[in-house]
TrEMBL record:
Gene: leuB
Keyword line: Amino-acid biosynthesis, Branched-chain amino acid biosynthesis, Cytoplasm, Leucine biosynthesis, Magnesium, Manganese, Metal-binding, NAD, Oxidoreductase
Protein species of origin: Candidatus Tenderia electrophaga
Location in the cell: Cytoplasm
GO CC terms of this entry: cytosol
Protein name: 3-isopropylmalate dehydrogenase
Cofactor remark from the record: Binds 1 Mg(2+) or Mn(2+) ion per subunit.
Domain Isopropylmalate dehydrogenase-like: 4-352
Enzyme class, first EC level, given as a word: oxidoreductase
Amino acid sequence: MTSKIAVLPGDGIGPEIVREAVKVIDALKANYGLDVEMEQGAIGGAGYDAAGDPLPAATLELAKASDAILLGAVGGPKYDQLERDKRPERGLLRIRKELNLFANLRPALLYPELAEASTLKPEVVSGLDIMIVRELTGDIYFGQPRGIEERNGERVGFNTMLYSESEVRRVAHVAFQIAMKRGKKLCSVEKANVLECSELWKEIVIEVGKKYPQVELSHMYVDNAAMQLVRAPKQFDVIVTGNIFGDILSDAASMLTGSIGMLPSASLDDNDKGMYEPIHGSAPDIAGQNLANPLATILSVAMMLRYTFGDEAAAQRIDAAVRQVLAEGYRTADIYSEGTQRVSCAEMGDAVVAALR
Ligand code: IPM
Ligand code: MG
């Protein structure tokens, strides 16, 4: 049966990077029997422009009716002054929640060809291959109560950090299962020395870990984890953590690779349905100039093939094509270094299509 992909380009560089990823999907359809259909929808600022809502009802419906979602990026200065509920980021948070995409997989992988791009010493990062599993639909991002209100004659802002046992349990299972397929090491990151929410998190992760005796489980406070990520990142295999800690640590981890333009992500529900997007933002400063790096979005398609469609061969085909174009010296501006060939966003997409085999 033909699978369906909802394609949500979003804002800024979103449309141009997604265009290149769609080229890759089209090439797989034409030459390698990939059986998918695609339909576009508006999200973020584009959703607001089209329907006055960063997650228009039609887009949510499309996403619900699809097997997977390919997202570009959302946000831009044009929308910063909108009331909070209309801002592009809200569209993103809502689609995650509405589709129950609780497990966010953010790999940080250093491509040997790009080792120079890292700000860390080559010996610290060479061979780096970490997977961060970030819980994505709970925590202080969604906890109630939240708000800004007047107390004792001044305004206070407040949010609630909250995890239920079941929320921790399901993401812990995902993380252990991923660790089983990798180096069998899992580090759970929290702040259990201060936060009750983290105390419960840790207790549940330990409980779930009893079902995965082959996985070596460790625990780390988030402040130490931030330090260890820049001190000796190769000690990690898989990290599992809550929404806010994962937001912060995954940005730090991405920069170890020197190229935020290279990193894909997957956000999964408990049925292998997923939303796939580059981890970088909408880069309004270079939008529409054919300068952006489409590789993170193209690699997100590889994750889609791997996790939602279970098509490891096709996923590896894309991974190999990306490695090949890097080996051949093609570089968009963000990863350019002397002696390599500078190409546009569209040329990079074409190079990947040419390298697929
Ligand atoms: C991310 C982003 C989002 C988040 C923003 C845009 C709402 O930073 O995907 O990491 O905080 O989750
Ligand atoms: Mg973030």
